[in-house]
Queue: 4 jobs
Job 1
Amino acid sequence: MNRALRLVGRRAISSIPVLLIVVVGTFFLLESASGDAVDAYLVSIGGGDAALVAQLRQSYGLDQSALSRLWLYLGSLLRFDLGWSVGFNRPIAGLILERLPNTLYLMGSATALSFVFGTLLGIVAGAKPGSLRDRVLSIGSLALYAVPSFWLGLVLSITFAVQLRWFPTSGIETIASGKEGLDRALDIARHLVLPVSALALIYLALFLRLMRAGMAEIWRLDFVRAARAKGLAPSRIVLRHVARNALLPVVTMLGLQAASMLGGSVVIESVFAIPGFGRLAQEAVGLRDAPLLMGIIVVSALLVICVNIVIDLIYVLLDPRVGASEVSS
Amino acid sequence: MTALLHLTELSVTYPRQAEPALDAVSLDIAPGEKLAIIGESGSGKSTLALALAGLLPRGARLSGNITWPSLGRSARAGADFGMVFQDPGASLNPVLRIGEQVAEAAQRHLGLDWEKAGILALELLGRVRIPDPELAMRAYPHQFSGGQRQRIAIAAAIAARPRLLIADEATSALDVLVQAEIVALFRDLCAADGMALILITHDIALAASLADRIAVMHQARLVELAPALQLVETPQADYTRHLLGTHIDLTDTPRIGRTVP
Amino acid sequence: MSAVRRFIGSPEGVIGALLLLVLAAIALLAPLLFPGDPLRIAGRPLLVPFADPAFPLGTDRLGRNVLAGLVHGARASLLVGIAAALVAVAIGAIIGTLAGFAGGLVDEALMRVVDAFQIVPGFLLALAFVSVAQPTLPVVIFAIALGAWTGPARLARAEVLSIRERDYVASARIIGMHPLEIALREVLPNAIPPVLALSAVIVAGAVLTEAALSFLGLGDPNIVTWGSMIAEGRSVLRSAPYLSIVPGLALVATVIGVYLFGEGLATMLARRDRA
Ligand SMILES: Nc1ncnc2c1ncn2[C@@H]1O[C@H](COP(=O)(O)OP(=O)(O)OP(=O)(O)O)[C@@H](O)[C@H]1O
Ligand SMILES: [Mg+2]
């Protein structure tokens, strides 16, 4: 337990400079854009005079130098203040907090499902490398992994929402249904089935491939030969010796994929019109709302850091060799 | 007396290989006998061990016969024979507790539940002289030295009380002092349990000091098989003489040197 | 020569290579097969596939030839995929080699930058980059490469660290070669094969990312891409779903081709290592 706590502490501290690089880098990237949110705002209201422009710029702090604004931004970050969204005319932190849960439902369920079923099918394939079922699963997962998630989403939507009408085509819940409690949760779950499937199927293919590749490696190792020489039951050799070891790199990959899954949710949320975090990013781009985009990137980086710390903790539980001094990276 | 194990004309050819890695080898092992197999690298010693254990890679062709007259049936890995390998670091599963790895063969073959198998494992760890077996049961392989890991691997291999232990260069990766301890352990275990031993080694002195008989392998064939002392003092095959000769050059052991003209 | 034989020895690799060859031929011959702008209106809107021999795959909502779009779209997909991977591998190989060779503070700083790029979702980064610059093809390529270079960088660095310790680098030092010269002449060529195997994965990822960007309307509006065709088909998803389905199938075929080719490369490398 102590080992775990120290690990969390160290990981959190070592994440600070990385996060700082993200903030500064994103800041200057968005800074280099031609035209800021005030321009976009003016276009949207049909133009304004110079006095209004100057007043707006001043109220958003856009009249100061980039460095001093960066400094101010860093200061406000420490207070969990992400600034003001011009496009939505609301504080950014509140906006993000409102959208984040939908994305977390989507990603959380997709990750859990793809990890569980991906590793299980990976074990089925990897239990007998070179067998027929291994080849079928390998080729199938390769094809599945080649499918763009947004297109899979569309195909699922055409089939199961438009044609069969089993699930709603879009949204996170039925609008103004007045549902409460369990009814509402079920309603949200029904809306999430298709987007979660679209994301999960593709990552399932990834975890399946990782697991079977890992197992193929482990089968060659000495301790597996030793286990076979002990005459253990095949299921015990496959699960306890081979799969148990092959799981370790898959868990590491789970952390590495967190960022990519968050990115993938942008498109899926767009396909299914889910008012989530990713959709917000797309809206921020459309509204030329640089501070909002900045806030989204910073929060997603934070999210990825947190996910990776959790994954590291799980890894420590799974691999006794990882001591307090050495952490898998 | 019925032989424990009887090999007739055993040949093995690995996939995509023209030459057999084991060529018509026949030999007997008596219950409780300690047989050393020596020979240069690539002569087929490990192939012989793997063939006995049924652990040859897929696609390898095996011909000839392996019978276990004293069992009256074919042998089961783990229950009738155990195996110890060269690299003690790699032959234990890095993420499972020692207790589980020592107990699992007993649980599988002796019809014990995990609790009873655990008690047996604890006793075995004591027998192979692991300090503080209680603690070791809950520890992981990386927490032990090379010699200790090899002791643990031996404990795991003999957990189901096999009649034969096959040790493939089980001491080669260890330093001389630790080697001597492992050899002493083999001697004790065989004496106490009446267990037979196949000891594969490069080390003729070791073979001569531990084994009852020595088999010499050369280019996939068994070139000589004789009681240890007889083989060392009056070698018949040219290759054996050559092997003994190089051994003298290397270490100049007087006891063997005296017998070679 | 033996490398070619090793590659041919893996059926996956051969199938992948054939798929890619066909796609590349289609992409190269697009202007000959379907001259003129594929985005121009060519016939009656929403012709169904196989109805009119002039439009084997029908027309879209505005009456554009779907097959022409598909064939021209292959150009964008392959170009972006390969170019983005090249840029990513080049940046990654340079930075990774530099970090591995320099060691110390430089290494530490560069690796923190790699970490930073790894915790920002690549797709968000591409989104931000494209929105800041204009959505032209080079910008899209660079935007995608920004999210993909960290893998090659880590790999190159690890490779350098392991090779660095080997004898010939030490002997090169003794001869008095400059560290950078050693890096370029001795270390980099050795680090390249595994990076190459990784690049297939990056090409596939880049093709998919490009499609997603243009699906969201963030690609170059002046060229036809499969992603934009899928997006275009969405407005008539109920009546003409094939408009979205067909370009997606082309994407899947391309990415499968790249993966298979990559598997072939990996098998080839593995056999080389074992030999
Ligand atoms: N899996 C395999 N596939 C093909 N050939 C093999 C395989 N394993 C061993 N061989 C070959 O079979 C021959 C005998 O190998 P074996 O491992 O039995 O020798 P050994 O006497 O144990 O040698 P060492 O003392 O080095 O362990 C060698 O020529 C070896 O190259
Ligand atoms: Mg051997």
Job 2
Amino acid sequence: MASKMHVSTSKARWLILLAAAAFAQPALADIEFRHALDDSVLDLAPIKGEEITDAVKAFRKDGVNPYSGSADALAAGKTLYEENCQACHLEDGRGGMGPSLVDNVYVNSRANTDVGIFEIIHSGASGAMRSFSERGVTQDQILKIIAYIHSLKK
Amino acid sequence: MRMRFIMSASILAAGLLMTGSVVSLAQEVPKTADQVARPGGKLPGDPKIALVKVADGFLDPVGVASARDGTGRIFVVERQGKIKIVTKDGKVNEKPFLDLTKNSPLGSEVQTGFVEQGLWAVAFHPKFKENGHFFVSYASLPFNGAHIIARYTVDPANPDVVSVEHANKTVKVIMNIPQPYYNHYGGGIQFGPDGNLYIGKGDAGWEGDPLDAGQSKNMLWGKMLRINVDTADDVAYTIPKDNPWAGAYQDRMMTLFGITEEGFSKIHMGARGEIWSYGLRNPYAFHFNKKGDLFIAEVGQNHLEEINWQPASSKGGENYGWKHNMGTNCHPMTGPDDKCPIVGVLPAAEYPHQEPYPGAEKLKDGWGCSVMGLGVADYAGLDGAYLTGDWCSGRVFATGWDGSKWQLQELAQTALQFTAGNNDEDGTVLAVNCNCFYLDDKGAAANPPGALWRIVPADKVPAGAEVAKTKK
């Protein structure tokens, strides 16, 4: 999903990509992260004080979450989930005000992939699902949250 | 005979040509549940809109209004207790127009502890240009969360900033309505075409209307209120004589005989004269169209949102049914096949929450959780439809009459948490969004900022304008 191969040849999109590539570090431009609502290209510039970690760099390259299954990351992810997500998705992810994160029903088309989940947590989806990057959550933290969400599925 | 038949047929044909569809029917309040519009409807011409950003950087904007004084200024209400001016060219004045966070040496005038509390609305007197009066509606900190409606007056020498000193010198308290719980205040205020001030008053909170406020005419809660504020300085307000229960609570001699049952039915001891209509849960925002029809965005409880329409010819007194019904639903709702009488009048439109009834499968489309009235759109082919934005799902719905029935059309699904809207002086619908939902409220001055938007026809987006993201 959402890899460079997948890019349409439309001129407009190509131009956007070129522009994005011109500003991003070339090594980081491998996966195209797009907004869940309108597919516009996401701005993944670090927020204040954020360091782009090796885990994030790797994830941007191949869409594979290096934190999957790591005990330390899951513990950190659990805390972050409880602080930021639990209110709407409930403690076990079964969904409340927001949809379930542990079933096979997806409101947003890419929410069945880690890249899609990353896009939604980073930049928001509809209405009450806000951009957590605007709320100070770093990309490294987002990966830990994603790892934790997957651990809830079992 | 034959001649006459041909004549009437051609008149009918002409009628068809003029309306472009089947014979039009006069717009009316739905009489049966199947006449209430629901998501999936289409307005004639399938209108398309875009939201264009006017300005941003507002802290929890929850209200917006034009002074209709020809200056082109837009007044954005920040929940924390400030009103900011956006100038004609889209700049936000640094100094607030009104700042209730500083008007007391003890700190703020405004209670913002819960996300439904704060400064909600500003309404400018119809003669604002001459008298400088404007009205605000908020939860008061010194009065422990009571709902206050107060009038302030602009200093003609300083039209863009009502200083703390000037505010405190000119303030006149119109109403102080006690509030037992921290939610369901309502809060919206608007001048009607009749010059009276209308107030959307919530059922005062908790859930399920534990005070039975909606149906009790001896309480101001759970109502639309209508008062006259053009009074002497020492009179806060008066009750318009034509309010439905204006005289119902007059002490009188008791007469038992020679009175009709209809006559008896007009006696409502204890009824509050301020009431215009009742049976409402949380009418935060409402708007009049040019004809004087009233649309009320009535925020629902667990399963349904409702949009009411009251024709200009109404004499008031409508019962919108809460807490017996929410829209066409029974309350309390227990399942998909609940049966109950419909109390009072039906809404023009309604839309479900993600879980339309307890235990229902979650919807993927057409849902929301809190309807915010934005304004009446007489452009973009919307032909007087009422626009609402949902606080949770970011959906913009239009409620309109298609010539024979009500339609509810989804115009856009955005990423915005809508909080309020209003018509600008030229009729354009303005909307504001916050980043301040219940479950992630960090405080009125600490949430990521929100923005002010203008709703325009999709093909009239100015070059270079920032447009709100919408789902494809």
Job 3
Amino acid sequence: MAVIEVKNFTKSFGSKKVHRGVNLSVEPGECLGLIGGSGVGKSVILRSLIGLEKPDSGEIFIDGEEISGWTERQLVEIRKKVAYVFQNGALFDSMTVYDNLAYPLREHTPLTEKEIGERIHSQLEEFGLLGNHSVYPSQLSGGMQKRVGLARSIIMGPKVVLYDEPTAGLDPYNTKKIQEMILRLKARGVTSVFVTHDMPSVYAVCDRIALLLNGEIQASGTVQDLERDPEGLMQRFINGIEGA
Amino acid sequence: MTLAKDMIRWMGGTAILSKQVLSELVRPPLYFRLILEQIHHIGLMSLPLVFITAISTGMVMALQFGLGLEKFGGKMYVPKVVSLSIIRELGPVFTSLMMAARVGAGITSELGSMKVTQQIDAIRALGTSPIKKIVIPRVIACLICVPLLGAMANLIGIMGGLIVGWSELGLSPHFYWQKVLETIELVDYMSGMGKTFFFALFIALPACYFGLNVSGGTRGVGVATTTSVVTASILILVGDYFLTKLFWIFEQWL
Ligand SMILES: Nc1ncnc2c1ncn2[C@@H]1O[C@H](COP(=O)(O)OP(=O)(O)OP(=O)(O)O)[C@@H](O)[C@H]1O
Ligand SMILES: [Mg+2]
């Protein structure tokens, strides 16, 4: 059974019809790369998968449960197992890096402050952010904020991770780090959707790629499928011949 | 036309927000630490402002009435007039108006900035509720702080009058204080203080509503902040009339 399944998803903002019927599904342990021009609605789809946004029509299944009609309180269960990595980190700027990372742990786990401290230490180490415990987000560079945001999203050990352009704006070294991170999580069996414009990272971590164009998934396939069909829509999009 | 639409949207939105606050208030957890933090921001940090407002009000009132009534030999009535008007009206209303400016603006701009930088979404995405984390602590802190600050303003305002009565009008502090105690009855006090709970809601709920519903980036935050302060002030001033009437009716019963 697919972990994530979206059926006939439509969504408009005002008179602008952004999604005309998106269908996609992600199998357990799989990493789906979702690509598409800027403003086609990739972030909105990710946000909808944890109920931050409601579709106008269509269905969203997470682990077989249809969540689009759920209340905020019911959605807490989904949000504990599905992590959303915000495009810009969305860190709490009134809290230190430490408190940002501790936030979900204090909220949803019975861990003691000492255990939380250990967990945060190892998480910061993994992201190359040691020594930034007591720093406020505004004192960090954009790339560091992004990494802290990623660290905060996955600190609970989620089953599913939705990455919203986690590598955008990062230097090659940290891009590589993030790719390795994603691969490590994948090796642990985490299912993920990876929204990005960064094709090398897609090739590095994704099993399958879907192209969102004009409000629909217009092409999808494995990386190998892509190589076999150099004239396909997906290749033309990647090479900048086909646009939004 | 758009104004009417905005009004209706605002009323509906505030009603929904109030309902959410009530329904989440009865479900654990309640974040006491966040409430204390807000009491610090909203209450303690407002002390100097409320102090200055109250003491100036009392002093000016005493001066105006003192000089005005002197001609008719009515200087002795200064303690009575000043203390009654402060306790029934000016203490609570001026305190609330100053709080609307300081706290209302603070809440709306903070929440608005959190909204445009997706921090409100982050609270939700991490499985927590912005109503519980953000709105309820601020509403409760206002409900606790505005009445307390109002009570403090009453006392300080009367003291301001006393100082001016003594230094400018030649009324002895003892006489002044005696008159104040003779004049003020519990109902006067209750009628003044009772309003502050409503004023606290008039400040906190619109402030949270406008903050959480900011649209249009940084500029939207500015617009929302202005709207929030204006709305709270109008609610306090207009609401004051109706609340006074309402409390008057209660007083007749007693
Ligand atoms: N809250 C909103 N109000 C109005 N319009 C919105 C809102 N959220 C998204 N949109 C519109 O929906 C469209 C899709 O937005 P979305 O953020 O999903 O794009 P995206 O594919 O993630 O783009 P990018 O690659 O630049 O991040 C945009 O055209 C945007 O104008
Ligand atoms: Mg996006």
Job 4
Amino acid sequence: MLKTLQQILKTGIVTAAPPAPADELRVREALESRIREVLGRALCIREVDAGSCNGCELEIHALGNPVYSIESLGIRFVASPRHADLLLVTGPVSRHMEVALRRTYDATPDPKLVVAVGDCGACGGIFGSGYASCGAVSNVIPVDVVVPGCPPSPTRILSGILAAISKSPTDSTGRPGQ
Amino acid sequence: MHLVVDPVEWRALAQDIAAAGGRLLALWGTNRVGQCDTLHAVAIAPPRVISMSIAIADGTQQYPGVEDVFPSASRMQRAVFDLCGLRSTEQDTRPWLRHAAWPVDAFPLAADPMPSSLPSPIDDYAFVRVEGDGVHEIAVGPVHAGIIEPGHFRFSVVGEKVLRLEERLGYVHKGIERRFTELPILDGHRLAARVSGDSGVAYAWSYCQALERMTGTTVPPRASWLRALALELERIANHLGDLGALGNDAGFAFGLAQFSRLKEHLLRATEQALGQRYLLDLVVPGGTRNDLAPAGATVLDEYLAQLTDEVTVLRGIYEEHTGLRDRFAGAGAVLPELAAWIGLVGLAGRASGQTLDLRVDAACAPYDELAVRRCTRQDGDVLARVTLRFDELAESVRLLRRILRAMPSGEHAVAVPVPEPGAVGVGLIEAWRGPVVTGLEAGPDGTILRCHPQDPSWHNWPALEHAVIGNIVPDFPLINKSFNLSYSGHDL
Ligand code: SF4
């Protein structure tokens, strides 16, 4: 226990520790204030891997590390689409995941936002479309914002989330509109 | 060593390899109009790597199965049928990679083009049912609660105790092997790196090795050292990620915060040194895309010094934390005897007493000079897989220091000629998870006739079904994470 505490003290707070580039800080600040403005509460995200190579997932995971500290910006990953404001979808959509993705989308309450992450989510990427791949996420469900990159960096993913909630005017319930 | 055998000799050969303590590493089929149907296999009986082509008599489209000799062959044989239409003699004829995206009588690697009228995208898979008093089923997936890849798990339980687990995979099958045939062979490494993104360096290297072998290309010494640098960085990145996630799954969020911070710093140092956080585009035919940045060696050296200090402290904390030990020790055990029978490979194999490590047993340059110290554990439980990650992380740090000190100077890439049609090559690289094998065959005019990447997860997914028997359902996420197998690499 003592060692654990010592390590915590020694580590200190590393969030956005220098030398974080300036645009990283700008994205963080804009995102935090936009979430407060639009939602007035935490933004709930459901991640769906609809066929990715798992590379995009690595960078989505990184959002939770102490450097990006997504929770401190008021963003939470939730286990059920029913609790989600936004779906973060990766991969070219495999045909075997097409129905699961549609069902997840349908189960997410309106109004909802969809961010397609990675070159694959944006356009099918290197996998393209074929007998087993539907290609871009927008071929299966409506998409608000795409985040190109292979994989996109955590900062680009954050910018994509910011772009999505900035697009949406606030409606009377305080949830993002379409 | 390459052997061309007939189907009867294939079975005998498989039995000989198994009797010598060897392992089947890869199995794939080719079925093309105007050519003999062929089954291909790669096995290892250290120090020998044996690749085999098994010609299947015209019109029979059937070959003898070896699932009784190498249990992991079962799912591979089912996949060979789904993709190529070649059927083994095995009893289990359920589809494996095919759900309902294409009909049973269309074969993506044989038919050109595929039928465009596709059946309903949901199918009914015949899970094995466990009967008995108080037995009930729990179905999980394909979409899981966390940020993980999709797959389906069917548990038969009594109370909280697991009697049986049956996996169903194939959800992220996106047609990779057919996609390869649409790419120029000198460009295929880009797709290879994306078969399983967490092992991009290993896959790209394995592909390039196959291509370089078939074209007789000698890679400059500096290029192979840069590749090894990248491969060990990839190993450390994954081990750091897993050590944090395993702590978290056992209720120790502190571990996740600490290890994910160390991982983030590693990715930043990697980007400074080699140009990308994840090195999916570093390994190219003939060498590497770029050299180490001028300050790269210093950046990495400084990072490694910090990493060593911090991991020593964290390892002490993990070892002394009684809550973690309680969750890790004894959970999800696969004992060495069972591991040998299943053919467990890679990190999970070494945690269950299976010594195979391609960096030692089939060492390519520069591993033949690096003298990798093999790490093994005997208990085969979550604790052994955690401990092995600490051991291998330390060994990779040692290797990286040596690589940074002794890296030869010179070119980091040479040009690779377009291979002759019909040329074949096999690549074998020990990824962080286990052996990644690539079988490559050149087509005319610089095309790919066939490319088959085999992920180590093919051998290890069946072991997970054994590992959870007798454990409680709530321990499954922890046990699953301790293997951390690839879905994308398996589903292709
Ligand atoms: S965009 Fe790149 S990293 Fe993301 S899933 Fe596609 S291939 Fe993988």
